[in-house]
Write a structure and sequence with these properties.
29% of the residues lie in helices and 17% in strands. By secondary structure, it is of the alpha+beta class. It is globular, with a radius of gyration of 21 Å.
């Protein structure tokens, strides 16, 4: 049995991490390739770092439509360093461009890495990373839609994520934390969606050698508890199948509004056992989430394909795409590259009667986005990780 969550009185004091000081607008940072970047206005703050609009250094100030953002944190902190390793190995612009052309894709939703380095100021050293600027995240869109996404949109998002996941899997990584708050629209083009936040990305096959299944009690329930995989609940490192499992849970939630275990997120063992039980009987799982006349058969087929995979198996990306494409055909729709978040009034019948829904948010509730300055609600969205404790989303 996984160990109980430690209490504040008995556990060791957490490692103290310094907060990054706010740099003045116009500060110039030089990356490892000697390329200079100028900071614009700060647009967000994570747990230990700051996020700024940025552009290549010039005499002109950084404009509000700058195409880049820079993450900055004290160099002795760890979160940005972990994410940086992923970006340097997987997200270089030429890598993404080559893959996109070879697969004849119009776009691949992986933020591009443009540079990184160390910067000294006031006797302190800071680590920074330059990546593409993104826009609003889909959790905010989900809530604005009354916690229901149209079926066409869900299938389109599934297809985009299969493209993204196949790319990062072929580059030896899994994401391990797929969810609406980590999916972001492009800040200029709302029809392009990106998978962000690689803080939990795991290199499952370094040098092409697959890692074996091994449980570690210290790692039980890693990820975001309502979506994380059964393997992660058991303390095993994430694999490609895990990403597909998480995607399956996300699509179910986006379609019906909630997952069956959402009322018990403070009990990670209950959540784990619920997922095990439902994957053992996927038809019953679907019946609990959807009314009989609105059950999405393609999502059931998707989950059955995922269930059949072994820990080290490569997902059948083509077959999974075909399943989602068949779902579009069934509802007389096609992937037209337009992401329409408009929810038909009849969409509420797609879930079981009595399911509670939150009121949609309105533009009057907007504040500033912690990642790139796009409008969002002032109230912070929280994630439940590991033992169910709430944790504010970090950069």
């Amino acid at each position: 049995m996984p160990p109980k969550a430690k209490t504040a009185t008995k556990s060791k004091a957490p490692v103290k991490r310094k907060l990054a000081e706010e740099f003045p607008i116009g500060e110039v940072l030089t990356d490892m390739a000697k390329k200079q970047w100028k900071l614009g206005a700060p647009v967000g703050q994570g747990g230990f770092g700051l996020l700024y609009l940025a552009d290549q250094n010039s005499e002109k100030p950084v404009k509000s439509d700058a195409p880049y953002v820079i993450k900055v944190e004290p160099s002795e902190n760890g979160p940005l360093f972990s994410e940086l390793k992923f970006y340097m190995r997987v997200a270089k612009p030429d890598q993404i461009q080559t893959w996109t052309k070879s697969r004849k894709l119009k776009n691949l939703g992986v933020p591009r890495y443009w540079g990184s380095g160390l910067h000294e100021k006031g006797g302190m050293r800071y680590r920074f990373m330059v990546i593409d600027r993104l826009g609003i995240d889909l959790q905010k869109k989900f809530e604005a839609c009354g916690k229901i996404f149209p079926r066409k949109l869900v299938l389109q998002l599934g297809l985009r994520l299969l493209d993204i996941l196949e790319y990062i899997h072929e580059h030896e990584y899994v994401h391990a934390d797929i969810k609406a708050s980590n999916l972001m629209l492009h800040y200029k083009d709302p029809n392009q969606v990106y998978l962000a936040d690689y803080g939990l990305a795991y290199r499952y096959a370094p040098g092409g050698v697959l890692k074996d299944y091994k449980e570690d009690p210290k790692r039980c329930h890693d990820g975001t508890i309502e979506y994380t995989s059964i393997n992660a609940h058991n303390g095993a490192a994430s694999c490609r199948r895990c990403d597909m499992e998480i995607l399956g849970y996300c699509m179910v939630q986006w379609l019906c509004g909630r997952l069956p275990w959402e009322d018990n997120l403070q009990d990670p063992l209950h959540v784990r056992d619920s997922k095990k039980r439902f994957l053992e009987d996927i038809p019953s799982f679907m019946s609990q989430c959807f009314s009989s006349e609105n059950k999405p058969g393609e999502i059931q087929k998707f989950l059955e394909e995922v269930k059949a995979l072994g820990y080290q198996d490569k997902p059948p990306y083509g077959r999974l795409r075909a399943i989602l494409q068949q779902g579009l055909t069934k509802i007389h729709a096609k992937d037209d590259d337009k992401l329409d978040f408009t929810v038909d009034a009849s969409a509420s019948t797609s879930s079981k009667k009595g399911t509670k829904r939150k009121k949609p948010i309105t533009v009057e509730d907007e504040g500033s986005d912690e990642r790139d300055g796009t409008p969002v609600r002032k109230k912070k969205v929280t994630n439940k990780r590991k033992d169910g404790a709430k944790k504010t989303k970090k950069l």
